[in-house]
Design goal:
It comes from Ramlibacter pallidus. This is Helix-turn-helix domain-containing protein. Keywords: DNA-binding, Transcription, Transcription regulation. It holds the Pfam family HTH_18. With about 220 residues, the protein is α+β, with helices and mostly antiparallel strands. The protein has 2 domains: about 120 residues, Jelly Rolls; about 90 residues, Homeodomain-like (Arc Repressor Mutant, subunit A, Orthogonal Bundle). The protein is about 40% helix and about 20% strand. It has 8 helices and 7 strands, in the order E-E-E-E-E-E-E-H-H-H-H-H-H-H-H. The strands form 2 sheets. It has a 4-stranded antiparallel beta sheet. A 3-stranded antiparallel beta sheet has the order 4-3-6, with no helix packed on it. A hairpin with a 2-residue loop joins strand 3 and strand 4. The longest helix has 18 residues. The two termini are about 35 Å apart.
């Protein structure tokens, strides 16, 4: 681990395990073998020395017929938002990755690796793109007005014009919990408000989306609200 927000590792790849996405950026630099990579339907080939950035929230899949190894950096650093899919200084990135693959057991090297990779990757003078602001109070009010309807993380993400994985990352940064837990907390807060106003349990459960009064009671008891 290269810090609270970054994880650096040397990984082996083989047969495909299915597409997925994640709420952080992922940088891959080929060390040995060839990795076939598909990101949002776009194909890329990662041979030794090649480098690719998989942006946060983009669905991707990997496969390597003969096996491959890559240096991988998982990072939530927002400075990567402004970086391109391939590095500005590919030779520098490749040389740095080769060194880091040999120095995986050296804490000092891996501690500085994320910053060095970022510096070699981005073009000089690249400014960080402004992040779309999220008004969490407005979003909470919107959620609480619709709790009698099916409201999930996908609907929340659409509301703020982000992918579900990007919303999950932003929610954890701002609120300390994932988007699903935040959504559950809004449901509980609204339920507690209605109970304090004297509404019967069965009506509160209906208005806040719980499947039964007993499910609501159990959730309130568990939360301590």
């Amino acid at each position: 681990m290269a810090g609270a927000r970054d994880s650096l590792s040397l990984r082996a790849y083989g047969a495909a395990h299915g597409s997925h996405d994640h709420p952080h950026h992922q940088l891959l630099v080929g060390i040995a073998g060839v990795l076939e990579l598909e990101v949002e339907g776009r194909g890329r080939r990662v041979a030794p020395g090649d480098a690719v950035l998989v942006p946060s929230g983009e669905r991707h899949d990997f496969a390597s017929a003969q096996g491959s190894r890559c240096l991988v950096l998982d990072t939530a650093n927002p400075q990567w938002d402004a970086c391109g899919v391939t590095p500005h200084r590919p030779r520098q990135v490749a040389a740095l990755a080769h060194f880091l693959a040999q120095a995986a057991d050296q804490p000092l090297a891996t501690a500085h690796a994320p910053a060095l990779l970022l510096e070699a990757w981005r073009a000089p003078g690249t400014a960080q793109r402004p992040r779309r602001p999220i008004d969490w109070m407005e979003l909470a009010a919107w959620v609480q007005s619709r709790l009698d309807e099916p409201v999930g993380v996908a609907e929340l993400a659409q509301r703020v014009h982000l992918s579900a994985s990007q919303l999950a990352l932003r929610c954890r940064e701002a609120n300390g919990v994932g988007a699903l837990d935040w959504l559950r907390s809004q449901r509980l807060v609204r339920a507690r408000q209605l109970r304090d106003e004297g509404w019967p349990v069965h009506e509160v459960a209906r208005r806040t989306g719980y499947r039964s009064p007993s499910a609501l009671t159990a959730a309130l008891r568990k939360s301590g609200l």
